Model the fold of this input.
Amino acid sequence: MRTLETQLQALLAKAEHFFSAPDPEWIYFRCASASLGQPDSARLLGKREGVNRSTVLERMRAEPYRGQVIDQCADALRTRFRFERACARLAEAASAHEHAVGEAVWGWRPVCVLLTGGLLVLILFGGPLIPPVLLLLTAGVLTWLHSRGSTAWLNLRQCMRAGALKFGWLVHRVNAGACAMAWAETLQREGTGPAAGALIREMLGEDPDSLLIRGGHEEGLRTPRGSRYLVDNAALLQLKRKVQQIEGGTIAVCGPRGSGKTTLLETAVRAADFGVLAQAPASYTPHDFLVSLSVRLCQTYIRDSGKPVPEFTRLSPLDRLGRRVKAGAKRVGRWALFAVPAAALVVLGSAASVRAVYRDNLAAGAHLASVVSSRVSHGGIQMWQGHSVASSVLVTLVGLLWWRGRRRAGVVSVLLQVPLVVAGVTGFLLFAVLVRDLVTDKQILLQLQQVEISSVLILGVLYLLWESSRTLQESEDEFSIGFWEISARAVFRPATYVVGGLLVVLLLRNDQVQALLADSENPLRLAGFVVAALLFKVALWKPRPAESALVVRCQDYLYRLQTVQSSSNALTTGIAQILSLGTAQTSSLSTVPVSFPELVDDFRRLLGLIAMEKTKKGEVVVIAVDEVDRLGSDTQALAFLSEIKAILGVPDVYYLISVAEDVGAAFVRRGLPHRDVTDSSLDDILHVQPSTLEESREILSSRSETLTGPYTALAHALSGGGLRDLLRYGLQILEMQEKSQSNELTEISRHLILEELSETLAGFRTLLSKHQFSRSTSTILGSFGALVRDLQLPCPCAGVSLRPSLERFAFYGAAGHPGTIADPDLVDTTRQLIEEASAYAYFSLTLLDIFSSSGLDRRTGLAAAFGREGDLQRLADARQELGISPYSARTLLDGIRVAWTLSLQPRNNGDLPLQRASDCSIHTA
Done:
């Protein structure tokens, strides 16, 4: 929805095209300028040298580019032809008018103004018959003058012809303005708009998408759990298919850390009609977990039923009484604040009319009441004396039926509805009588016939203005006038009050309205309408629905789980004044904490009842258990599953449990050759794979308009497709843009990759510090330390000697390389850490060579010719492989470097292609 500011700008542009001279060149210039002002085009201007507004506009106005842009509007040839034809007709009308003005002897403007003005005055004040008579007299006088040889008629005719041609020119000018508006709108939509963006990207040179330009929304990166930014990926679609295939069961969700398992469970719970999400305990405590899950289940069901969750914080009776009194007084006070003045005003206004009606109908009402009471009493006496046998039998049967209906809820409900129905029917009849009285009142009809049409039109226009202002004041739009940002509410709220006040004033000052209000029967009618409204409200009243048995059961179970009940009784007997002999007795009662087997039985029973109720309505019940994969080890996770297995398998309930990949692998290997708890606990398993490059692009594009394709590929490669790290690297890219003060991918990616490499190697160095080393291991440690020092060098140039150090360390683990880590003094754990750090350095070096060099689009196309190894997705595959084995990851990286024509061995010299800062105190030479 466009804002008011955008609508005003579009309206002003249309007005400018309409009122300005219909010049095709000028219209093209205005459309080109407006296209460059669009956000998508304006954000690209000034980001590279030679690409600014003036240079782009100059090229758009030059031929043959201008003709190409106009020819792009293939669907608008008809609009363009109409505009050119309107311009030609306008030029012809202007030429004919100028020729007629040149032939006229008198001034055509004053003559036409006098003739037109005089004719309008005569029509206005003299009636419609005066102008024809005057025209006939004028024609006779002019004919007589022409017969005498006078030139007055000729001069007058020339002036009238010039005026007529000017009027024709005005008609053509309006038509040309309308055609100019249509042509300008079409030209900007189909021509200059797309052409401006394409031309700017062409002038930007290589890799226009590698420019990081802040703009648009970025809130999605800062809110990873925001539900409105979620997209349907392959894992979610697969989960939906699995749920549709089975009617209840346990589905395990496994995948690497940060792959989006928690987000998947949260999405499934939100999509379910009834869902509960519970976090598994950090330590192995199934009893506490089941208590927490039971409490969540009860609270969720109570909230889903529209009831408040009870609070079990007990206060003293005096405090509870005080709170209830305070809340009741507050409600009564608020009600009385409006009810008492309203009732007093209504009674004061209608008291006289009601008293008059009461006096006039008192005798008739008393007579009717006496007749009814006498007949009822006479009938009762007749039945009591046995003179009316049929009535006695009927009354006896009614009494028996009444007794039989004491336990039928339907009978009680019907009896309770009888007063409400009577009130509704009475209110409707009273309303109908009042309406009939208004319609048949001759005095009101006479006053309505005397209402002037002009007054009705004025009041109708004011009412429409008031309604429009009242609607617009609720808008949240804003528009700017100069330096001021003005909201629609600030403008239209005062207008609503002003127009509404003016409407009320005009209504009250109108004679017919005053006569209608002064009708003597109006107070009684108003009192009748008030009574009818009250009767309607009574008829629509419904008692508060009673809480269902399941809600009460959940409340009781909550009380059982969250409180400890204890009671004591004491009895003392004795005759202290006579004898010193007495007896004393004390008893106490305290509930036993719920045991685990009892918890399991109660949970299954309660969940089964809830599932039965929801299934009858066609609703889905989901219980999600998260964080099971973080219990410590797969052994602990399997032990936890074996303990809570008893609560699984409830009919019509879907259990979703996030487990570690080891547990998922155990389920896949079920029966080969051993059985474990997964065989009997899980019904199916869902592997949440890291996202592909296309899915990462969809995820980041839904959360940020800033990150274009190359930056998405960089974040995807660094994260390996993990959702959590993908969003984290998206934020870090924006941070690196501020840190580097550059919009280019080469600079931003270099800063990001080197910072990640520095942090990762610092972590490896911390782990290596816990191991023992000998003198013979100084080579690899020296290379490692030199690289860490170069990465931490406080230099704006980012280190001159970084490339050799990075290559030496990255290629240490390469097979056949002289620097291969094969020192016999290194223990296996130390060698493994160094191999992993070297493989990660090799991965970072590959990312630097790919993303920190210009011409990414061109080089991506060349790499794609090598097949799968040249795809950017392979970089994420390599990142995932680093978590499995550094050796297989290095093999994968070798294939990627071959596809991108990168060296497989360190160069003898050369630094990273970094631009040295002019203010660098280290590399001043």
